[in-house]
Amino acid sequence: MEKNTKEKSLYHEAVGLFMCTDRLHKKVVEKRLEEIKLHRSQHVMLMHLHRFGKAVSQKELAESLSITPAAAAVSVKKLIEGGYIERKTSDKDARYNDVTITEKGRNVVMRSREIFDSIDKDMVAGITEDELIAFIETLKKMKENLKEKGQIK
Questions:
Q1: How many structural domains does the chain have?
Q2: What is the 3-state secondary structure (H, E, C) of 19-82?
C-alpha cells in the first residue's frame, strides 16, 4: 500500500472511531438517564439552569442554549410539570418569566453527575494515565485544526 493511501486509511479509521465512540457514549448516557425519566433536551436545560445558580429568564436560557424561545418554553413547561423548576414573573421586567431550579431538580442534577462520572470511568477503564494525556493532547490538536481550517473561534 502506498504511503498516501495508508495515511488516508489511518485518518479515516481515527475519525470513524472517534465519531462512533461519541455516538455510543450518547447512547449509553441516554440509556442510563432513563431512570431519571427526562428527555435529553430537558436534562440539558436542567443542568444548564443548575450551572447558572440563580433565576434566569426563559429568553436568557434559550439564548444560552442556542434554541428558540418556543423550544425553551416547551421544555420549561415540562420541567415545571415534573416539579424540577419553578417559574415566576421577573422582578426586573413583568414581560419576562424567571425560572429557578427546585430541590427535586437539584437532586436530579446530583444523580446525573454520578451517572456521568460512572460512564466516563467505565469508558477509560484499562487506559493508562500516559495514554489519556496523549489522547487529550491529540484531541486538543484536532480541535485547533478544525477551528483554524473552519475559521471558527
A1: 1
A2: HHHHHHHHHHHHHHHHHHCCCHHHHHHHHHHHHHCCCEEHHHHHHHHCCCHHHHHHHHHHHHHC
